[in-house]
């Protein structure tokens, strides 16, 4: 019987606690083996909740606990350094989005990934939701014809207290951005997955409903893709009381619309309607959302990739591309000009 991979949570904040809960349910795929945090009281509390060792140092945890995977759940600007530390210690990595807040940092992560031969995956769990997978298959199978456009909306709401809950939140240097970098990047990732390689971005951003922050709470963009398709993006934390994440993909032979975990609309000139029950999550634990199940599914995918020596479904290339578009949105909004993404 294959031993479960030993996983350390690096960063015991809100997101780290989410990861710990997911890891604790992995069974033969993985086991929570350590919690790491510079805040001893917070880190010890999470470690004690799951009955695992606490370490104030990631290096110490990797050395003493025989860690296979580090789950990096730190503020965004600390991601690259933590990922590289883990890789150089011989540890595979799952890192929360974004991969970091600069392309230079993303490139350093990829260089370390190549040099060490270890696996790195960036959290983009919405790709693992059944409806998102169905839309991607529909595109691949030609059910939508030529994809002509896509629209994603993350119209969320965050109260002022959200930004005041940590001294790094809402800062350009550590948070790296606002509604798009930290919330809308999930929907953006879906748009990129569906429409392909982006080549140009035109955007506007605003700080309209929050005080004392350096980043946007509204962002809107038009994205041109290599195929000629046009994407529209809205990300907000200023849309009370908040609406479902919405993705619409339009093609010459069909349209598919996803709202949160549901298929809100599907029409195809060549493909039948899916059976209503075929896109439902199965065996959702009490208190879990469907997106939590998708999050756990990404962990299972990474474990499988490590064991087989293959690449995970979501790679550092995907993480870097999403970050590149986010930064292009900010650059276009700052300059008032389109940003060319041709590499």
Notes on the protein architecture:
The protein has two domains: 5-123, 3-Layer(aba) Sandwich (Rossmann fold), CATH 3.40.50.720; 126-287 and 313-340, Dihydrodipicolinate Reductase, domain 2. The protein has ten helices and 14 strands. The chain has helices at residues 14-23, 40-50, 58-64, 79-88, 103-116, 130-140, 160-164, 179-195, 290-308, 316-335, and strands at residues 5-10, 30-36, 54-55, 69-72, 92-95, 120-122, 147-155, 198-206, 218-225, 230-236, 246-251, 254-259, 262-268, 339-340. An eight-stranded mixed sheet has the order 13-12-11-7-10-9-8-14. Strands 3-2-1-4-5-6 form a six-stranded parallel sheet, sandwiched between helices. A hairpin with a 2-residue loop joins strand 12 (254-259) and strand 13 (262-268). Helix 5 runs antiparallel to helix 10 (316-335). The termini are far apart. The model has no long low-confidence stretch (mean pLDDT 96).
């Amino acid at each position: 019987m294959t031993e479960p991979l030993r996983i350390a949570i690096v960063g015991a904040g809100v997101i780290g606690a989410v990861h710990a809960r997911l890891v604790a349910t992995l069974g033969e795929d993985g086991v929570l083996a350590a919690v790491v945090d510079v805040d001893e009281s917070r880190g010890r509390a999470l470690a004690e909740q799951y009955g695992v060792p606490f370490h104030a140092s990631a290096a110490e945890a990797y050395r003493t606990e025989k860690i296979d995977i580090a789950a990096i759940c730190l503020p965004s600007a600390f991601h690259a350094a933590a990922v590289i530390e883990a890789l150089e210690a011989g540890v595979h990595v799952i890192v929360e989005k974004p991969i970091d807040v600069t392309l230079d940092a993303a490139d350093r992560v990829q260089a370390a990934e190549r040099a060490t031969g270890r696996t790195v995956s960036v959290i983009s769990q919405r790709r693992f939701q059944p409806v998102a997978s169905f839309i991607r298959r529909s595109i691949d199978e030609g059910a939508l014809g030529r994809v002509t456009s896509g629209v994603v909306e993350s119209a969320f709401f965050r109260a002022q207290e959200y930004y005041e809950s940590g001294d790094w939140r809402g800062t350009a240097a550590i948070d790296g951005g606002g509604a798009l970098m930290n919330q809308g990047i999930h929907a953006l990732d879906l748009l990129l997955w569906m429409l392909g390689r982006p080549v140009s971005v035109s955007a506007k951003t605003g700080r309209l409903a929050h005080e004392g922050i350096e980043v946007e709470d509204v962002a809107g963009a038009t994205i041109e893709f290599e195929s000629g398709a046009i994407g529209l993006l809205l990300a907000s934390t200023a849309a009370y009381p908040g609406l479902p994440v919405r993705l619409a993909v339009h093609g010459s032979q069909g349209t598919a619309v996803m709202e949160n975990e549901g298929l809100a609309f599907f029409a195809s000139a060549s493909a039948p309607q899916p059976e209503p029950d075929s896109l439902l999550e199965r065996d959702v634990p009490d208190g879990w959302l469907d997106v939590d199940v998708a999050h756990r599914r990404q962990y299972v995918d990474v474990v499988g990739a490590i064991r087989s020596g293959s690449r995970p479904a979501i790679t550092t290339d995907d993480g870097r591309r999403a970050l590149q578009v986010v930064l292009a949105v900010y650059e276009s909004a700052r300059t008032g000009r389109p940003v060319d993404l041709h590499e």
